[in-house]
Amino acid sequence: MNRRRLLQQAGAALLLAAVTAGPVAAHEAAHEAAPDRDLHAECDHRGALPSPDCGVAPTPAIDGEGRLWLAFTRNGHIYVTHAPGAGEPFAPPVAVNRVPERIYSDGENRPKLALGPGGEVYVSWARATGPRAGDVRFARSLDGGQSFEPPQTVNDNRDIIAHSFDSMTVDREGRIYIAWLDRRDAMAALAEDRPYPGTALYYAVSTDQGASFAFNRKVADHACQCCRLALAVDRDDSVLVLWRHIFPENIRDHAIARLTVDGASRGEGNFPVRATYDDWHVEGCPHHGPDMALDAGGIAHMVWFTAGNRHRGVLYGRVDPEAGEPDGEYVLDASSTASRPQVLIDQERIYAVWKSFDGERTQLLLSTSDDLGRNWSSPAALAYAVDEADYPLLIRNGDRLYVSWHTVAEGYRLIPLPTATIGAHHHHGP
Amino acid sequence: MARSVLLPLLAVLLLPSTSAAAGGPQPFHPDSLDQIVESREGRPFLLVLWSVTCPPCIKELGLLEQARADHPDLDVVLISTDGPDGRAEAQEILEHFELGDTDNWIFSDGPAVRLRHRIDPDWFGELPRTYFYDADHRRESHSGALPPDRLAAWIESAVRP
Q1: Residue A15: which of B54, B110, B117 has the nearest Cβ?
Q2: Which of A198, A226, A254 is the last residue of a domain?
């Protein structure tokens, strides 16, 4: 075996899974110890009480009664709070984990919040277990968010390696799906001196309201190491997962797969199903995962970031999860600072939001399509931030849509989306 | 030969993350790039952005270690994007690759997006990111781990013309 190959292998194995020891602390520090930042006024001291404004990476969910729930981290704890509706005051936050943990809480690798059909409150996150290593954690509240049961670890491999970048969703039957990036196969390959690009994608399902999770199942080998996963519940209650994959050789485009309670579908053709063709050859770390929403016909509408040979910037596209054959690629924003797109479908309209930095401020941009992604409105700025900005997250409350956005200077905002057609000028897709 | 390469890399994997680094990278502020460039008037250099969380970055550090051993006059500037709390871990990795004595920087606290924008408004933020500065400080960029032949060609043309 030559030196180059070994370097590749060892280097990849080295931090593969291991992602994000630094950013956790860095983001916390940004909130708690920075003397010369544009901090939100209430958060500008170490003793600031946990609140959505002063928390890190607040993540929203809306329950059946229209209440807004948020999970955020601060000082080694995840807190959950709720408000009766948009713009109304939040209840005192409840700590999810009583024992402090080192919690990954950068935008890409943030705690997740989901609600069960019976009012259950579920939280998942990644806890750092060592340098560049983590476990996927889960905790539930069965009393309407007043208290949380002790957290459990979802990954059944307990080595001090990376199990991280968890994503969670709940289907209509109340089954909980958690998918994550898992380094166990990369470590096994390293021990046997075999090359293994990237990391593996695993998932587990709970059919008992989170009392327990079934054994871990592998979806795919060779996922990109540190990009968030997108999950969406399909009409038949199966769950689709979209992730950045490493296609031969070092092409970091996206793949899609279907998860069920009984196992991951491997499809009839090539696996995994290729969801994007950007031809992004890079032996590097985008740290930039996709988002996805399903239409009534089961087609996945995706937004993602790429710097490929075929496309660059923030893109939209769609794919049939079984057949593959992605089409409809449309560049929503080609600027180099456009990032972190999210997508939501409401009735016949597709909403895409993302953020972009203009040299001075970060702007929150919105574009919409009324014809399933063929034409898009000109991007419109919804809000601005003068310092660090978290990812914009789209949520629905009945017939109202919002962007949930945390920014360091301005605090937590729930920004309503305009309901009228946005922008007079429509672009035609390529 | 094979073992001798693999074992040190595994050692990095097992590095403790808590030991404090003496010295180490200095804080990179919005005006730091001007300082870096101006102090190298008329001289070519390599500017590399990396992170402790990025596996291909670690591979690139290995390549740079070898390149510096082969070309002691190679001027390398390394900027970690990890922020102040990643400093100790960054320093451990740098020392492992015998890069502790290069010109090392780490993103200061403050909006990272502003620092990235000052370095290159056309950079999407992917890592590692390498800039080849020639003697006139015209620069070319490369995203992802550097192919060894690309580095060798640049050294041949820019460092030893």
Answers
A1: B54
A2: A226
Burial group, residue A178, by CB count within 10 angstroms (0-12, 13-18, 19+): buried
**What's the CATH number where A214 sits?**
2.120.10
pTM: 0.87
CA–CA distance, A318 with A326 (Å, rounded to integer):
6
Minimal Cα–Cα distance from B160 to chain A, Å?
24
pLDDT tens-digit profile, chain A (430 residues): 343 433 343 343 333 333 333 334 333 333 333 434 567 777 877 677 789 999 999 999 999 999 999 999 999 999 999 999 888 999 999 999 999 999 999 889 999 999 999 999 999 999 999 877 999 999 999 999 999 999 999 999 999 999 999 999 999 999 999 999 999 999 999 999 999 999 999 999 999 999 999 999 999 999 999 999 999 999 999 999 999 999 998 999 999 999 999 887 665 556 789 999 999 999 999 999 999 999 999 999 999 999 999 999 999 999 999 889 999 999 999 998 999 999 999 988 999 999 999 888 999 999 999 999 999 999 999 999 998 899 999 999 988 999 999 999 999 999 999 875 544 445 554 4
Q: Which domain holds residue A334?
A: 227-430
| Domains assigned to chain B | 22-159 (3.40.30.10)
Run of H or E residues at A404: strand A400-407
Q: Do A19 and B53 touch (CB under 8 A)?
A: yes
- Percentages helix, strand, coil for chain B (3-state, rounded to 5) are 40, 20, 40
**Are B109 and A34 in contact, with CB atoms under 8 Å apart?**
yes
Q: Report yes or no: B85 at the A interface, CB cutoff 8 Å.
A: yes
Long-range contacts: A266-272, Cβ < 8 Å, 24+? A267/A322, A268/A322, A269/A324, A270/A324, A271/A220, A272/A219, A272/A220, A272/A245
Strands (E), A68-119: 68-74, 77-83, 94-95, 112-115
**A306 plus A337 within the same structural domain:** yes
Residue that finishes a domain, picked among A194, A226, A258: A226
Q: How many CB atoms lie within 10 A of CB B114?
A: 18
Torsion A47-A51-A52-A58 (CA) sign: positive
Q: CB distance from B93 to chain A under 8 Å?
A: no
B62 contact residues in A (CB cutoff 8 A): 7, 11
User: What are the residue ranges of helices labelled H in A233-320?
Assistant: none
The neighbour count for residue A325, using CB atoms within 10 Å, is 12
Residue appearing with tokens 């969670």:
A168
| Segment 20-79 of chain B within 8 Å of chain A by CB | 51-59, 62-63
This model of the complex carries an ipTM of 0.80
Q: Are residues A369 and A221 in the same domain?
A: no
3-class state of residue A191 by DSSP: helix
Chain A residues in contact with B84 by the CB 8 A cut-off are: 26, 29
Report chain A residues whose CB lies below 8 A from the CB of B58: 11, 14-15
